[in-house]
Amino acid sequence: MKELESAGYNAVMLYLSSVENEENRSEINVIRHYYMVRHNRFSQSDTKNETESELFIRAFQFEYTYVQGTASQQDLSPELVSTLQQKISMDQLVYMQSNG
Question: HSE (CB half, 13 Å, CA atoms) of 45?
């Protein structure tokens, strides 16, 4: 499986390099970053993947706690708090779906 992943990764990187220009450099870099993260995840051990998942979950929990604490201490508007919590929830959902 790792050989297939490496072959696909190398083909994608070659293609992205061949189509990259000044006008699309930002978009190409976003795609390149996605594939680099994906490739690194395939290359990691299961233990390292579990540790990474635990760290992401803890980070999301810290974000929620920070927003709540800041909201009560600095009188943030309910709209801003709601927007931030929705953003955190969406990021967590995307993370869980892409790593499930």
Answer: 3
Spatial neighbors of 1 by CB under 8 A, at least 6 apart, are 42
Q: What is the pLDDT of residue 82?
A: 87
Angle between helices 2-19 and 25-43 (to 10 degrees): 170
Task: In whole angstroms, give the CA distance from residue 55 to residue 10.
Answer: 29
Contact 58, 33 (CB under 8 A): no
30-54 average pLDDT score: 79
Q: How far apart are CA 14 and CA 17, in angstroms?
A: 5
pTM check: above 0.70:
no
Mean pLDDT within 53-73: 86
- How far apart CA 17 and CA 44 sit, in angstroms, is 25
The position carrying tokens 């969406």 is 90
